[in-house]
Write a structure and sequence with these properties.
The protein is an all-alpha fold. The chain has 2 domains: 1-136, no CATH class; 140-266, no CATH class. It has helices at residues 4-32, 37-56, 64-86, 93-101, 106-125, 127-134, 141-169, 189-207, 215-227, 230-233, 237-240, 244-250. The chain starts with a helix and ends in a 16-residue tail after the last helix.
Length: 266
């Protein structure tokens, strides 16, 4: 594993890059009264950090090309999808609730409780990227498994998002529950793909000799399942979407598997 003396400068520069991007987006969000812009740049925080890490390291290791290609594919696609999906829409109701709880002066407070928090969290989660880029260890089986899992996760998430967009654009299906394609096997296949991508990045870091970076995919899994992902989206969706309770009964929440029979409630 690279020495701390080699890592501290790229690590701090990566944090600075994330902070600058977050602060700039906060400025735009304040003008437009919409902090949901933070979702558009979440994945770009990692892209900016990875590029800075690679540039600041004295000699990026043999994983550099793989890691950069994967994080660029993941980050640019996800940011583009979220930006396109939210274009022209009002602030997400999740952020409206945060705004209401933090008045007065939410515009200023959001710099810290929304944008600053996500920048710091993203920096912590980006540890596998730094370690994988810095390590001189030769590529091994853990790297191969990580590259395969990460690529699978990116593709799985992209397909799930594409299927949902097609469903939502079909006026004849308005008000119905999306339960076809990958959504037949998981209620949140996009989040499952996201989780796979980050466990893949960890496996690459493991191959680089940094097993302690397991904290990164654990944090991402926790966020996806318990904080900003599954738990938050399903908090009241059954009240807004008729048929969702039946969908819950027959469909796995996260890990894809064949749907249960309609009369099987166990």
């Amino acid at each position: 594993m690279p020495e701390f003396a080699v890592l501290w400068r790229p690590a701090l520069l990566g944090l600075a890059a994330m902070a600058v991007l977050a602060a700039a987006t906060w400025g735009v969000s304040s003008l437009r009264h919409n902090v949901a812009y933070v979702d558009r740049i979440w994945s770009l925080l990692f892209v900016s950090a990875a590029l800075v890490y690679a540039q600041a390291l004295p000699a990026p290791g043999p994983r550099a090309a793989w890691v950069l290609a994967l994080v660029l594919a993941w980050g640019l696609r996800l940011s583009g999808h979220i930006t396109w999906r939210g274009w022209g829409h009002d602030e997400d109701r999740r952020y409206q609730a945060i705004r209401a709880r933090n008045q007065p002066n939410f515009a200023f407070k959001s710099l810290f409780i929304v944008f600053g928090l996500q920048a710091v969290l993203g920096w912590v989660v980006s540890a596998p990227l730094l370690m994988a880029l810095a390590s001189p260890h030769p590529l091994n089986l853990a790297d191969a498994a990580g590259i395969a899992l990460c690529a699978f996760g990116i593709a799985f998430e992209a397909v799930a998002d594409w299927q949902l967009v097609r469903f939502q654009r079909d006026a004849t299906l308005r008000g119905r529950v999306m339960d076809s394609g990958l959504w037949r096997y998981s209620r949140h296949p996009n989040y499952f793909g996201e989780c796979c991508a980050w466990w893949g990045f960890f496996l690459i870091a493991l191959g680089a000799g940094a097993p302690w970076t397991v904290a990164s995919p654990l944090i991402m899994t926790w966020l996806l399942l318990k904080v900003s992902g599954v738990a938050l989206l399903e908090k009241d969706i059954a009240e807004r979407r008729p048929g969702y309770r039946d969908y819950v009964q027959r469909t796995s929440a996260f890990i894809p598997r064949p749907p249960r029979p309609a009369d099987d409630t166990h």
